[in-house]
Amino acid sequence: MKQLVTALSTALILAACSAPEPQSLTPLDSGERFDQDIIARDVSQAIQFPTVSVPGAPRANWEVFEEFRAFLQARFPLMHDQLNPVDLGDGQLLFTWPGTNPDLDPVVFLAHQDVVPVEPGTEDQWSYPPYDGEIADGFVWGRGTLDMKGHLITLMHAVERHLENGSEPERTVYIALGPDEEVGGIGARRAARYLDERGERAWFALDEGGLTILDSPLTGAPAAMIGVAEKGYMTVTVTARARGGHSSTPPRETAISLLARAITAIEENPFEHSLDGGPTRAMLAATAPQLDGIAGFAAANNGLFGPLIQGQLMEQDAARALLGTTIAPTVIEGGVKDNVLPQQAEALINLRLHPRDTIESALAHLRGAVAHLEGVTVEADQWASEAPPVADMEGAAWDLIAGAAAAHAPDGAPVVPFMVTGATDVRAFANTADNLYRYSSARAEMGDAARIHGDDERIRVDDLDEMASFFYTVIDHAAVQDVQN
Length: 485
What we know:
It is a single chain. By secondary structure, this protein is of the alpha/beta class. It folds into two domains: 2-11 and 231-380, Alpha-Beta Plaits (2-Layer Sandwich); 36-229 and 390-480, Aminopeptidase (3-Layer(aba) Sandwich), CATH 3.40.630.10. It has helices at 2-14, 36-47, 62-75, 77-82, 145-164, 186-197, 255-267, 280-287, 293-300, 302-313, 317-321, 359-369, 396-407, 446-449, 463-480, and strands spanning 86-87, 93-97, 107-112, 135-136, 139-141, 173-178, 202-207, 212-213, 223-230, 232-241, 245-246, 326-334, 340-341, 344-353, 376-380, 415-420, 433-438, 443-444, 458-460. The strands form five sheets. Strands 1-2-6-3-7-17 form a six-stranded mixed beta sheet, sandwiched between helices. It has a four-stranded mixed beta sheet with strand order 16-9-8-18. Strand 1 and strand 2 (93-97) form a beta hairpin. Helix 2 crosses helix 5 (145-164), helix 5 (145-164) packs across helix 15 and helix 13 packs antiparallel against helix 15 (463-480). The longest helix has 20 residues, at 145-164. The protein is globular, with a radius of gyration of 24 Å.
């Protein structure tokens, strides 16, 4: 850090520039408010349905999913009576709220019904049983509270309230509730295909992925983090082949040692990492006003100080992941007996593709890294998916989402575009929507965000009113009043 400060101090003397003014953003709030205790009870009930999805088995736990959907139907009767819910297959629900103006592009709101399982043997590490939906200490506790039944329930409260108020949208609103986001998101692809087959293209689609982080690692203060991009997903199989036989007379290189060299070669040839090609520069600029002194000046002028900032970000795993495609060897297999030379050894390497890289270019990069190793091949898994386009960070769609986020975040919290390093259902709409955003106004400290998919997942009861109001506001301004596009 001292080197960075020294370098920046020198640059400040030499640079004839000043920090730009932060982008103007008008907060948007419909003024509609909700009873957080009622919503908390609904989230609690939702948690009590252990809707765990299973890879390759869309009908696994089918009775539990059916019971959960019956609960939603009983709790949100107007949505089910008026918005013509259809099952697109294996429990993928799509609600349609028709708009009065067919010339306006629709908007899509996504949520998923499924949750990840609780690791067997860890149940006693939870403060409250993971599927009890306990309301205690100002939180609703349980698997799926943040990921993402809190999001789903508050979204449905917002839509139900609009129907209670007699709202009539000019723009068609779709609500897609996926059954399998945690295991691949086939349902979301069905919903996107539904729009595509009707020749419809959404103005924007809004899903999970961003939160209001109360102790942002960039500033230590609250920040409304809106995902405007997410990484692609790709797993490759690296296979090494060599002579088999008895272990007493091994060749100079076995399949396993060849595989080890291949993995090392791939890791020693990383992908390009830079501030370009994604939302990182915009993220730095948005947080600049909250950073003190030289750090704030550098963030605001990241075009000038890019190399210095990049050098600092490369020192942290999470920050480095924002700058390029990551390489993670995750599974290795080879050999059947201690005195038998395996003829083949394999490793799985998981890549999260930066928007600047494609499946084709990434595969070519990996193959180039091992081209000098005879007997090594690299093949991509069939489920690979490209990184979707980066959403607009200015213009009417951004102003709406970001304005609603600003109004429902703590006072003074910046609205920060960023890249989600995981995968969400909204990626299925990459070719069916102009902009893909990922945000819920739930507030969480970094420690709470780390509970997602882990022990003691929970959501703040005090946030549930703001979350429902946020969704109500976005729907209001996108489809009911102040309709643009």
